[in-house]
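Dataset card, provenance and construction

Sequences and ligand SMILES were collected as paired inputs. For each pair, a complete structure of the chain with the small molecule in place was predicted and serialized as structure tokens. The example below shows a pair involving zinc ion. Curators did not alter the output after generation; any descriptive sentences attached to a record were derived from the structure itself.
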Amino acid sequence: MDAIVEQLGTALRAALVFLGAFGLALWLSTAIWVFRDIRARTRDIFAVLLALLLVLLLPFAGMLLYLLLRPRETLAEQYERSLEEEALLQEIEERNVCPACHESVEDDFLLCPNCSTRLKNRCTNCTRMMKLDWNICPYCGT
Ligand SMILES: [Zn+2]
Ligand SMILES: [Zn+2]
């Protein structure tokens, strides 16, 4: 009888040691994961320290809190988004549109094909395109 109890005790102790080691490893890995994750999301050293403290002081619960509070976007995603926005802005700037109806027009149109607003003037001397607000032709000096 004693032998069985002793064996059970040993097995229980082994299981506890194993669980403890496993928990410790899990706790450390969450801390490492959070450290990497927050570094990808912010350059703010205080935010990094705060996130690390959170998961180290509150094992597992801190991890949940971190997931709720962390910045939504990674730095790479932010960078990508700013590039996309820039490209979009540039596209809008480069695209020629009629000032009256905002229909897209070609660079060398004299009139808007949609609402026939005058877009450009033609120089009477050299027949090149002139912008409406030009008083003299920059090509021939008329
Ligand atoms: Zn138009
Ligand atoms: Zn001219």
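Derived descriptions for this record:
The mean pLDDT is 90.
Helices lie at 2-41, 45-57, 61-69, 75-94.
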